[in-house]
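Handout, section B. The chain below has 371 residues.
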Amino acid sequence: MWSEFLPAGAALDRLSDRIAKYRNWLFAAAMLLLVAAVPAAQRLTFDQTIESFFAPQHPDIQLLKRTREVFGGDEFVIVAWRQPELLTDEAGTEPVEVTATAGAVIRRLADGLSVVPGVDGARTRDLERLLAQSPRNRNTRRAMLKLFEGLLVSGDRGTTAIVLQLLPSAKAPVSRNTAIQAIRDTALRLQPGCAVAGEPVQIQEMFDLVERDGNLLYAASLLVLSAMLLWIFRGLRWVAGSLLVVLGAVAATRALLVLAGAQLSMVSSMLNSLVTVIAISTTTHITVHYRELRMQEGLTAEQALQRTLRELAAPVFWTVVTVAAGFAALLVSDIVPVRSFAIMMTVGTLLVPLLILLVLPTVLASGRYVP
């Protein structure tokens, strides 16, 4: 189709000739880009807050912020464990008390958890402390236990818990993730077998699982597609070329996001694996075309490279632009993670043809034989 337009066709011929001539320099530029992008890409973080699901101007988020400003933090972490002989005889004539053994365990754990960075130690609540502060009256103590049931003590009186309140994020010396992990480590060290729960813990675990699954999907898709390329083309250089395009596109995308101050969201955790699929499908199409020219028409490596560049420039360009436009269409969404996903995938998709121009010319024309 391009041959019908002489200026465009002549310009494309000159461009393909120059790309073929300076392919080794382009490959060196790709390696420099990869080396520079990888350290920056490692700094891309995951926004693990509920606020990331909403726009900053959303009325519910504004109400949440005002509530926290007025009443302070409202994030609680519960540390619970089975405690034998927790209480004295509740049916006896004496007011129920926490036994000496259980009290020592509770105090040791409460004191250790209260000094964890990010925890508001002054607001730590435990069964022994609250019972000690209540009147020493049998009926009052029974009513207190009923009140605490399901929170600080179980219905069978065999499990107890400590409730920790986290400092507001703006005042905390460490991040939420660091504080929760420190609580978990301290609790398990002081009381093996205990459980750590609560809303912030659930949020952290949810995001951790999403991030882990995203990385697993990326590694699995990269491994499976590489194995398929190796089986189809029977040559390591074809696999290496596709992998370099994928790694370069992913690293460059993540580095640009770091420079822009962006963070991954729950939806955009699939960034790596989706860029992998786009990059490998495109490089496979180019590789197949190049190999057909070499094997069926007997062209030299440089001739096949130049012709591949000329014949596939338009199809690859418009395919990539169409995919990028499809992702960009998600920008109309009112959901913040979807909009961030649209931006990241649009950038990642548009970087794929750039990496192809930098990497594939050298990879395609580097071998003397086509297996």
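Note. Residues 1-7 have pLDDT under 50 and may be disordered. Compare this with the example in section A.
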